[in-house]
Amino acid sequence: MLIYDIGGLIASPQGTIDSFDVEELITLPEQDDPLLTEPIRFQLEFIKLRDEVTAHVSNLAASCEMRCNRCLITFTAPVVVSTAERQFWIHLPEGNHAEIDTSYQIDRKHGRIDLNQMIREEILLHFPPIPLCSESCKGLCDQCGTDLNKSSCACAKPEVTKESPFAGLKSQVI
Length: 174
Ligand SMILES: [Zn+2]
Ligand SMILES: [Zn+2]
Known about the structure:
12% of the residues lie in helices and 32% in strands. The protein is mainly beta and 174 residues long.
């Protein structure tokens, strides 16, 4: 959902604020979007300005399903957005719209703001670029596929892995 009735706010004087504590289970729309396993939570303020309404989101916490980049297990981890803001136009400004983002507009017919696009953008923006189940995850053997967190295998390992911070040092010492 994440659709808010702001009909009353639009009719209010500049500077009026509407606040909400949001807790809602949502599904992100695209196939590759992360699965949210619990309701997302955030504080929301709508601030009425002259031609626009500012949506100010803070302390957003989402619980997202991720796949470890090394061992490929699926795990759940928090994605946190401390603050985010978008301007939603009440009336598009006169003249040239090339320089402004017109993708955020208020549904004036119904007096509503739809926050779905904003919240999806913020979750994706704050999603870890390389998810890891743990910093110390050993990953899978690149030869036999054994999960090296659970057991070891007999495959010959290169003596020094690429990830070792001592890789350069060792070759210098020898
Ligand atoms: Zn892992
Ligand atoms: Zn192996």
